[in-house]
């Protein structure tokens, strides 16, 4: 099911960790990492904007991106209700949370898909996206 443009919380299925920009950031114009937050810490929603079937995910008003990759990401079909893989349709890389530790930066890696129909994805590659309103 497509997501309408709006504000959403993004949470990793494996670790039940919300991800967002870090609470404390330097004041430079350098890129800011998307990181997991400690369990129980207040999560802030990001924005998801749909245009022509492609999605841009924004955190703190800035678009999410993989260094040296495209800014736009595509949300694959729902794996379970409300659970999605976040990937780049050009590079076939996607968001992965490698450990259940606060401040772990979300990585962009080639996704692993199990050989089944529909494909099986490890839960650290799956994201639960819920409306913020």
Give a structural overview:
InterPro entries: Inhibitor_I66. Pfam families: Inhibitor_I66 (PF16850). One of its GO terms (molecular function) is serine-type endopeptidase inhibitor activity. This protein is mainly beta. 0% of the residues lie in helices and 35% in strands. It has strands at residues 6-12, 19-21, 34-36, 46-51, 54-59, 62-63, 74-75, 83-84, 86-87, 93-96, 107-110, 127-131. It has a six-stranded antiparallel sheet, with no helix packed on it. Strands 2-3 form a two-stranded antiparallel ribbon. A two-stranded antiparallel ribbon has the order 7-9. It starts with 5 loop residues before the first strand and ends with a strand.
Which residues form runs of ≥5 with pLDDT under 50? 68-73
Number of discrete domains: 1
| Residue share in helix | under 10%
Reading the helices and strands in chain order gives EEEEEEEEEEEE
Question: β content, as a range?
Answer: 25-35%
Distance between the termini: 18 Å
| Count of alpha/pi helices | 0
Structural class: mainly beta
CA-atom Rg in angstroms: 14 Å
CATH topology-level fold name: Trefoil (Acidic Fibroblast Growth Factor, subunit A)
- Kindly provide the name of the CATH class: Mainly Beta
Query: Averaging pLDDT over every residue, what do you get?
Result: 83
For the report, how would you describe the main beta sheet?
A: 6 strands, antiparallel
Q: Strand tally, please?
A: 12
What general form does the structure show? globular
Main-sheet strand order equals: 6-5-4-1-12-8
CATH architecture identity: Trefoil
GO molecular function, one term: serine-type endopeptidase inhibitor activity
Pfam families: Inhibitor_I66
InterPro entries: Inhibitor_I66
